Amino acid sequence: MQGKGIYNKSISKNVSAERLEKYFLREGENYRVKPFIRKMVIFAQHDLVKNPPYCNMHLISCRNLLIYMAPVLQKKIFTMMLFGLKKEGYLFLGSSESPMPIIKNLEVVHKKWKIYKNLETKRAISFDAFSMPDLPDPKHNASRYSPDVAKTTNNTLSEEIYESLANKLDYLAVCVDENNQVVRSYGDTTKYLLHKHFSSDLSELLPKPLAVAFNKLRKEVLETKGSVVLNGIKIKQGQHIVSVALSVSPLMLKGNEKMLWVTFSPDKSTVTPQKELTYDEKIYLDQYVVNLEAELKELKEKLHSSNEKLDASNENLQSFNEELISANEEMQSTNEEMQSVNEELYTINSDYQLKNKELLEINDDLNNYFRSNINGQLFIDNDLRLMKFSPGTVKQINLLETDIGRPLSNISTNIKFETIIEDVKKVLADGCVITKEVETNNGKWYQVMTMPYIQQADHKNSGAIITFNDITELKKIQQELNFSNKMLGMAIDSAAMGMWSIDIETREFVPSPRLKELFGFHRDEQMTYEAAITQIDSKYQTLVTDAVEANIKQNIKCEVEYPLRGFHDGKLRWVRASGDLSYDQEDKPTYFTGVVHDITPHKQDEIRKNDFIAMVSHELRTPLTSLQGYVQLLASRAKNTEDTFSVVKLDKAQIQVKKMMALINGFLNASSFEAGKIYLNEHTFEMNALLNEVAEEVTLITPGHNIVVLPCPLISVKADRDKIGQVINNFLSNAIKYSPKGGHVEIACKESDGSVQVSVKDDGMGVKPEDQGKLFDRYFRIESALTQTISGFGLGLYLSAEIVQRHNGKVWVESEPGKGSTFYFSLPLF
Questions:
Q1: Cβ(120)–Cβ(83) under 8 Å?
Q2: Percent of the chain residues past pLDDT 70, beyond the cut
């Protein structure tokens, strides 16, 4: 029971309820130990007398067992327990047991409960602990030496004398039998023997040199019946090499026992006697190999002889077994009949119990499923009678427990579903599944699915299952979606916008009828993606296709304006296309969709406005140039006449003229960008030199701010130097304009990810997050009480962004209201 971890209910008297709850599982009338506790314990049969002990044990519990054993056997078992305990391990004995044979190695922890702690860490080899105690057996002839020589547990006077003599003369004497099994030893075994547990074979306990020499001398002594002494055997003891003398002599006892007396002692002789031998490692190793080969040959012969005897014995046993089998057949026939009947009864009983258990589990599963199913379910048999229903069904049908067994036609429902009987009959006849959406009297919608009830045994249709799924919210959302789609369609039709859709996987292009009209096709005419691109002005075709691919591959929103020529009418139109990716339920992009709006009237107005601005700006530049020349001439004359007042005023007039020229140039550049007439004169220059040059020019015009150019590495860029200088000038002018007088402005540049990055940082008023995305739009200005006195048309940052983008660069801003702004632009390195 303990091996299975099962205990009866009586343990609740001695085990607390808390421990029972934590470490046990209740199984009927019994308690089972939880698996994680059971896995900590190993149950194994172990013979304390015959089997070697387990090593390094933390605890050995042996209670009320040793009291049934003789003192000789008790001492042997106590010695094995001491060997098995690790240092500071615990020994737990019964109240009537005392570990007196090993008490010197133990510390008493609790005297009453017989708990002891092991104090010994290293023990010498003890052969007595691993062999059976020698007890007289009247049925067998006892060996000659067993009662007289091997009484290891009786500390007689003679053995004490032998032990003292061996220690005094510093030798080790070992008595072995003809199989090299140690029978008795006198002296300190730690000097000459290895500490190998579970073995009493002397040849395995000796160091290699001694084992080789002993093997040869043993064979010689057994053949000659004479004693042999061998000196000069080198072995390692601790950190030293010592020389050992080995003596092997025959020990003749009464009877046929062949014993050997082996003596180990330090080799103190300097001259080898004539009858004594000196150890030569090579000779003895060779002889050792020869002896091993001889032993192997002898073992093979014995094995062959044993196999032959075993075969003969097997034949005899087989014939004897056949006789026994024939004799037992008649006796077994009756037992088999009785056993077969018992097995059938047991099998039937087990099957019934298993089926009952499965039936209970299925009923529990079905009842819990019904209880947790908020949707209604009806189970109908082939006669259209109600067999079972879930609790959620009462919301749709007026049902009671007494309705089970009644025909379905006699039960009233809350739903507008007149064909329920016909649907059930069709499912019973055809085995199909019918799904319908119906409305209840209180305005709710349900999906009613009628499917066949199939028996697992014969896969036959034996009824029907009617399931009611509440889809009221889904229906409401569907109606709202239909309304939204209708309103969206009306909005698109009223705005005269065209729509398109491109499948990302197949690249299938689906245009709306209005989109076909914008591209000059008939509404019912087919228009492919390639045909639509062909109608776009050749200068803008690459721009449009790149924008489409950037959205599909990089998820960059598509916003592009371009002119096109109608396919049939040849009419020139300007359109604005806006598109983005559409995602499925798994958040994966599936379609690229968008709208196209006809902006031809708006574009024509912009063209006329830009032409007017360009014309006016051009006409204003001529008188301003003359005015600038007159101011410079007057300033030169005032300096010659040392008219300080005139010089100061003329310098201020010169600054205002330069500001007016900058405004006019801005309008001209804006109109040039919009007309696509801007050209880049790219060549290689150093960015840090341009930064210092622009900073010096701005400092001369606006000395009221502290402009600092941070150290910049030498970075060469291929771009339009004048245009990039204009961008830096616009950034600096913007920083000075929106910073307080005496403010600090920093200019920095660095190389990052294959591009040069330039930044202009100020400590001005900052920009709100909602306005940062509009800063680079044309004519955009932040309207607030702080900006009312600051002049400008909102063209500087727009022109800067256009110039940087024409260089395939990027422009952005980082700002926090009240703490200042940092404007960035980056250009790719060649």
A1: no
A2: 82
- The token pair that represents 64 in the structure block: 């009320």
Q: Which residue has the tokens 């057996």?
A: 137
In the block, tokens 């006796």 appear at 331
Phi and psi (nearest 5°) for 54? -75, 145
d(CA 408, CA 450): 14
β-strand partners of 750: 757
C-alpha–C-alpha distance, residues 734 and 801, integer Å: 14
Q: Are 665 and 725 in contact (CB under 8 A)?
A: no
Report d(CA 181, CA 190) in Å as an integer: 18
CA dist 20 and 24 (Å) reads 5
∠ at Cα 649 (648, 652), nearest 5°?
Answer: 90
Q: How far apart are CA 329 and CA 323, in angstroms?
A: 10
Per-residue 3-state assignment (H helix, E strand, C coil) for 511-532: ECHHHHHHCCCCCCCCCCHHHH
Other Cβ atoms less than 10 A from the Cβ of 410: the count is 10
Q: Which residue has the tokens 């308690």?
A: 31
User: For position 153, what pLDDT does the model report?
Assistant: 43
**Cα first-last separation, the chain:** 84
Residue 443, pLDDT score? 75
Q: What angle do CA 659, 661, 664 make, to 5 degrees?
A: 110
Longest dimension (CA), the chain: 154
- Of the candidate ranges 88-97, 292-301, 327-336, the one whose mean pLDDT is the lowest: 327-336
Q: Residue 43: helix, strand or coil by DSSP?
A: coil
What are the residue ranges of helices labelled H in 94-244? 157-169, 202-205, 208-224
**H-only helix segments in 147-280:** 157-169, 202-205, 208-224
Asked whether 472 and 445 are in contact (CB, 8 A), the reply is yes
Number of CB atoms found within 10 A of residue 328's CB: 11
Dihedrals phi, psi of 328, to nearest 5 degrees: -90, -10
Q: Any idea which residue has 């607030």 for tokens?
A: 784
Report d(CA 57, CA 64) in Å as an integer: 20
Q: For position 664, what pLDDT does the model report?
A: 66
HEC readout, 710-738: CCCCCCEEEEEHHHHHHHHHHHHHHHHHC
Give the 3-state secondary structure of residue 231. Answer: strand
pTM, full prediction: 0.33
- Strand ranges of the sheet holding 24-27, from the earlier edge strand across to the other edge: 6-8, 30-33, 24-27
Q: In the chain, what are the helix, strand and coil shares in percent, each to the nearest 5?
A: 45, 25, 30
309-320 core/surface letters (b: 16 or more CB in 10 A; e: else): eeeeeeeeeeee
Q: What pLDDT, in 10s, does the model give residues 432-446? A: 888 888 877 777 888
Three-state DSSP state, 375: coil
**Nearest to residue 825, comparing CAs of 746, 815, 813?**
813
Instruction: Find residue 743's DSSP bridge partners.
Output: none
Long-range contacts of residues 169-173, Cβ cutoff 8 Å, at least 24 apart: 169/265, 170/265, 170/266, 171/263, 171/264, 171/265, 172/263, 172/264, 172/265, 173/261, 173/262, 173/263, 173/264
Beta pairing, strands 376-381 & 810-816: unpaired
Chain centroid to CA 670: how far? Answer: 57
Structure tokens at 737: 């304009």
pLDDT greater than 70 at residue 604: yes
Which candidate, 720, 718, 716, 717, places its Cα nearest to that of 679? 720
Find out whether 817 and 782 touch, Cβ atoms under 8 Å.
no
Residue 538 DSSP SS3: helix
| CA-wise closest residue to 652 among 664, 642, 640, 638 | 638
Phi/psi region, residue 472 (left: phi>0; alpha: psi -120 to 50; beta: rest), is: alpha
Query: HSE-up of 186 (CA within 13 Å, CB side)?
Result: 22
pLDDT for the residue 90: 93
Backbone CA torsion sign across 289, 291, 294, 299: negative
What are the tokens at 576?
């604005």
Q: Kindly report, residue by residue over 703-752, the tens digit of the pLDDT.
A: 778 888 898 888 899 998 888 888 888 888 888 888 877 788 899 999 88
